[in-house]
Structures are given as C-alpha cells and as structure tokens.
Design brief:
about 20% strand; Macro_dom-like; about 170 residues; Leucine Aminopeptidase, subunit E, domain 1; O-acetyl-ADP-ribose deacetylase
C-alpha cells in the first residue's frame, strides 16, 4: 500500500529516492521550483540536462540528484494553462503518469511531486490537485513498489487546495 502525504516544505531538502522537477521544455533551469532544484543540485545537474536535449510537454526524463538529498530528479514539463483549450488536463495527467512510470522502472520507494503547472503556468489549483491525486491513485492501485508519495505544496493556497481535494476524493472513492 502506498502512502500519499500532502506536505508544505522545501522540495529540495527532502531525502527521498526522487523529487520531481516542474521544468520547462529546455530542461536547462528556470524560475520557481525548477530554478531552486538546479541551484540546490549544483552545476552537474545542468550538464546532465544538456545531454537529455529537452523534453516534450507531458513527458518525463530522469537524472541523478547530485548535491540534493534525493538520489534522482525526474524532470517533467507541465502544460501552460490556456483556458483548457489545448488539452491541458490530459497533458498534466500525463506528467504524473510518466514520472510514476520512471519511478517504477527505477524501482523507487519514495517520490516527491511539486504542484506541476500551478505557478507561472497558471493551471487552476483545484483542477490541478484533482488531476494529480486521481492520476496518482489510479497508478498506485496497480502493482507498485512506491511506499510513499509526497505532494509538496508551496504556500497555503496550494496546501489548502490539495488537502480539500484529497478529502473530497476519499469521500467519493471510499
């Protein structure tokens, strides 16, 4: 059984098998979580990301964690919100699924996700939380070695949206 925990902390300080980086298509660093992960991991992460030659929206790629307490960084590119007119919901669900597939492939026991696409990409919080939690629950209902999945929230608004959505989904799914 996989434990899903919603927490408010600095994702770069978590000692887990992998943290997820909400990256841009270049994978070469940026603002927000992406910039914080690159700064904390050190210059080796940038060098490794250059070798990956970018990433398509909705996909994921993996590198070592370098100076981070996490062993790996799984980079995924979330969709920019365009009023739901560009398949954003399916692309966001794909981000979570692809990261979880890599976690399974690498036999990871713990993973931490930020709120993908909820910062500068402006995905509506409640909808993003529902997509994240539903996709994760569907994935872990099948065979998985993951023991703990952290949903790391930056700020009270994100934490509240994720906790409320988690409670609602638990009621709806028993």
């Amino acid at each position: 059984m996989t434990d899903i925990e919603i927490i408010q902390t600095d994702i770069t300080r978590l000692k887990v098998d992998a943290i997820v980086n909400a990256a841009n298509n270049s994978l070469l660093g940026g603002g927000g979580v992406d910039g914080a992960i690159h700064r904390a991991a050190g210059p080796e992460l940038l060098a490794a990301c250059k070798q990956l030659q970018g990433c398509e929206t909705g996909q994921a790629k993996i590198t070592r964690g370098y100076c981070l307490p996490a062993s790996y960084v799984i980079h995924t590119v979330g969709p920019v919100w365009s009023n739901g007119e560009r398949d954003e919901a399916a692309l966001l669900a794909s981000c979570y699924r692809e990261c979880l597939k890599l976690a399974k492939q690498y036999r990871l026991k713990s993973i931490a996700f930020p709120a993908i696409s909820c910062g500068v990409y402006r995905f509506p919080l409640e909808q993003a939380a529902e997509i994240a939690l539903t996709t994760i629950q569907q994935f872990v209902s099948a065979e998985t070695e993951l023991q703990t999945i952290y949903l790391v929230c930056l700020g009270v608004a994100v934490l509240t949206a994720y906790n409320e959505t988690f409670t609602k989904l638990k009621v709806n799914h028993g």
